Amino acid sequence: MNPEESRMVSLHVMNPGGRDASRAFLNGPGHPNDPGHPPVNFHAYAACTHGVFARSVADLPTTARAVLLLLRAKHLTKAEKTLRTLQKAGLKVLISWKESGAAQVAAALSERSRWLEFQKIASASDGFLSAVPDIETIYRAAGCPNGLSLLTPYPLEFPEWIFEIPLSERQGVFIGTREFDIPARNHLLAVCEAHGLHERITVMTTKTIVGRRYLESLPFDLQVVDAPLPYAQYLRLMASHRIVFQLASGAVPGEVAGDALLCGMPCVGGNGGTDRLTFPDLRGFGRSPHDLRTLAAWLLNDDEAWQQACSDSRNNAASLGFDPTAARLAGFCQ
To answer: pTM of the predicted model, to two decimals?
Structure first.
């Protein structure tokens, strides 16, 4: 799909009252050093179709025809009002949970009142876009008329977004998770398992003081990096390592595995959608932490195996590029 065709079927993404500032991707993903949120996660749906990520209806272009409305557990009433406003203006509205992992959606809908509110939104919407296949049946059970399961895409066709470096310049293990207080991340277990690999380990922490103190209390020699970093800097840091290692089990879209794709490196562990598609032989589903550590050790010591894993992931990720994703969204957003 060429840029002109993509513009004709732009999918604009709206997060009413969210923290991320509005950003237009009218010319595609832009450059990694551009200010603002990078074209990943839900921003990627807008970026691949030359759309806008918006916080309010006023941020949408006058030519808008289709909007992906993001739902958050504590703001469902606001989302419903936004849905009605958009439809009254003649726009097609798709819905998606912003925190779309299976465990995250289960937590969001753990109260009856939220389920009933979600039902109203789902039945009134024009469809759903599920960033992970695991929760598609929840949208349908709530009365969503139709929908599409489509993993968040990555700008794989754009050389400026590829952070791959030679294997000879890589060393050590990058821990793909960073939160100790989210059980599904299994962050502590990942750090402990990685220690058994006897390699340089880099760990990021989102809670600078508390996180650093926690990591420093562990009997390991760790390189600790405070998060967040600018996205390009984060990818360069990740790419300087030989593998990414994680034990996340929340059935999320798989952002860490997507980052690894941009860095041209294997991601061991994780059961997100992107993990399952692009790294099926390294994913966490059905494998014990010990199994995953064994796989990690293999990739750390066998150059041929490492190269093959990278080649396989690139082939598996063919459908995750911006062009194929935009093509699938085009017909859905007419």
So the answer is: 0.94
